[in-house]
Amino acid sequence: MERYDVAVVGAGPAGSAAALAACRAGVRVVLIDRSEFPRDKPCGDGIAPHALDVLAGLGVTGVVDGFAPVPALRLVSPGGEVVARSLARPAHTVPRTVFDARLVAAALAAGAVWRRRTVRSLRSDGESVALDGASVSARVVIGADGAGSVVRRHLGQARNPDGHLALAIRGYAAQPAGPQEQRIVTAAPQWPAYAWAFPIGDGRANIGYGEVLRGHPVSRAHLLDRLAALLPDVDVAGATALRAHLLPLSTRRPPPGRGPVLLAGDALSLINPFTGEGIFYAVRSGASAGAAAAAAVEADAPGTAARRYAADLDRRLRRHLRHSGVAAALGRRRRMVDAAVRAAREHQAVFDTMVELGLGDGTLTARTLARIATRLR
């Protein structure tokens, strides 16, 4: 049996960040994924600067090299209100085939051991956690294995129910003419729902459409029809790599762990309900999980990992998650979104607050809410 201090299941941004943090703390780490890298992952590919801040804290730079910064955001409300402004700090659009592979390479360079395998079961004997019987064991296990997480099921947590789960389709198409900006077009039908077009910088754009599930089937044809309707200047028919994926929203999160077993990223339902953004949450929760796991191992108390992790997440994200949940609840009323976009068009501070809330760990302010309220009239 291979024995490690920390086993990370899933090598996406959350898993790689967890492995990096644990390796930096000096413990023995194995990083496990069912896929070889590079591999594709359906996603909007938007990398906010907040995610890069976390990675820089782990000693990782250069993950967006070769991809031009995107300096602006255009947002269209369900009622047709429009705001287009410069971002305080530019974002990037980096295909996950590139971004994730760079993070895996950084984790392996930091000392993590790579194992390609599909984890189907976990078993704990009080001293360690065995994966798939007796092949690999670790004192702490971090589940960063996505929306269908095996580690989450091991903890007895079901997937998010409808109303707290979104479905989106993503593809790549020729970048339409116009300014270099991220574009989000919300839709009144099937609200909450929106389409996006994020320029990559190589003549292509990442395009997609998603909506919150409401208890009825959603077909691929429906997703593509809505995408074409909301982005009429994009050649949706000629798009490549069209793949659908589930987004477990942060409005229904399970506990972050139990004893020596932790959850991070999508496995913890850390998808922003306001925007669908998940990469910042992934690297932030992964870094916190890896540090907590290492600290528990160093203290010879792996059973305290979940408590340490929950305390760190609470300190870093609790207020933000509460505010993003409020924003999502308010945003279910289309008039509120129309008013917010009107206020953001008139006030840079409102725009900046919305960006911080939707892409990072920002919070609402009384002044922002007051300015939105006045635009309801």
Description:
The protein is of the alpha/beta class and about 375 residues long. Helix content is about 35%, strand content about 25%. The protein is built from ten helices and 16 strands. It has helices spanning about 15-25, 50-55, 95-110, 150-155, 220-230, 280-300, 305-330, 335-345, 350-360, 365-375, and strands at about 1-10, 30-35, 45, 70-75, 80-95, 115, 120-125, 130, 135-145, 165-175, 180-185, 195-200, 205-210, 240-250, 255-260, 260-265. Strands 1, 2, 6, 7, 8, 9, 15 and 16 form an eight-stranded mixed beta sheet that branches. The protein has an eight-stranded mixed beta sheet with strand order 3-5-4-11-12-13-10-14. The longest helix has 27 residues, at about 305-330. The relative contact order is 0.17. The model has no long low-confidence stretch (mean pLDDT about 95).
